[in-house]
Amino acid sequence: MTEPRTPGHGPLTGVRVVELAGIGPGPFAAMLLADLGADVVRVDRPGGAGLGIDPALDVTNRNKRSVIVDLKAPDGAARVLDLVERADVLLEGYRPGVAERLGVGPGHCHARNPRLVYGRMTGWGQHGPLADRAGHDIAYIALTGTLGMIGDPDRPPAVPANLLGDYAGGSLYLVVGVLAALHHARAGGTGQVVDAAIVDGAAHLSAMIHGMLAAGGWRDRRGANLLDGGCPYYGTYETADGAHMAVGALEPRFYEEFLRRLGVEDQAAAHLDVTRWPTLRERVAARFRTRTRDEWTAVFEDSDACVAPVLSLREAPHHPHLAARGTFTDHGGITQPAPAPRFSATPTAVRSGPALPGTGTAAVARDWDVPRLLSSPPNPPPTPQRKAPS
Q: Of 82, 251, 269, 328, whose CB is crowded by the most CB atoms within 10 A?
């Protein structure tokens, strides 16, 4: 059984992408391109990528098709290069030099397809003293100064899951780079290599903060600034039921509305007087502890006080605003974020569920005219899978 053909919706309809299977930011970047309509073929390795999650639940492989190629087999590289010859983009996330050793590096690929955009996703980048070292999101953001900005001043830096490094500093910058290089290739006929390093992207994300630091408007320590929790009207507070509310009442009129709804109007002078901030924080915290999160949500509803409840992953899809916009969607029994951003003329959608390894082989061989794919087994041997965490 083969997966349905996925192209046909979104602004990237007609763009062909080869994804060399990996974990983390590479698959997410490929998912984003697939969400935007690209025909993404994921080249899985025999035995899978080792994530320990049922492939049927791996949302980052939605809207794709999968083939299985053993790149270490004598003809493995040739199979991939057949796809490359017909592709616009290739994405890989190996350590520097691995793709070259496997016979699918930029030189091999551009010899077959000079217009190809070759996207490389790594943590440290393709060169530099740490380029060959292993690493994960937390190490990359640690060196760039971004991790050190996050958290309370009297506690270790807070870990922002792997959103800041892998996905914001990694995947999104890879996609921006690939789309820019694709534009260049279509305008001038020449492909190129996109070196997307998480350290580069994570550092780039802090551009505004570096400007503020140079101007004396940011102190180089946690919890001492307007946007890092140092300001009592930009942060989170515990409620009576142990939940939390988020406050972002920065501008004067929002601050005034916030104080009025919270019931601490006598703190108006503390807005720009940092000497009053400790007292303001104590008053605000004490007030929030007098009611539950739902009660405070009702108090601040329909106001410009810039206050919102802190929701969990399972709660978020049910928020009335997100539900009205369709920010989350259900597909194949999985609640997941809908494709973003949105387009007026070329709307996007979740067209197919996670691509199961190898199930797209026959369809891809036909659609891309790569008959050599059919000489490899279309399905891998079954491997035990762990259920997604509840």
A: 82
Does the annotation count 166 as an active-site position? yes
> Beta partners for 329?
336
Selecting among 137, 166, 200, 228, the annotated active-site residue is 166
Gap between the Cα atoms of 69 and 83, Å rounded: 11
Q: Alpha helices, DSSP H only, in 311-385?
A: 320-325, 361-367
Burial (0-12, 13-18, 19+ Cβ within 10 Å), 312: exposed
Q: Which residues contact 153 (CB under 8 A, 6 or more apart)?
A: 221, 222, 223, 224, 230
Other C-beta atoms closer than 10 Å to the C-beta of 40 total: 33
One of 75, 127, 132, 136 is an active-site residue; which one?
136
Sheet holding 244-248, edge to edge: 234-238, 244-248, 307-309
How far is it, in rounded angstroms, from Cα 374 to Cα 366?
9
Q: Is 331 known to be catalytic?
A: no
What b/e string do you get for 334-359 counting C-beta neighbours within 10 Å, with b at 16 or more?
Answer: bebebbeeeeeeeebebbbbbbbbbb
* Residues 102-149: tens digit of each pLDDT: 999 999 999 999 999 999 999 999 999 999 999 999 999 999 999 999
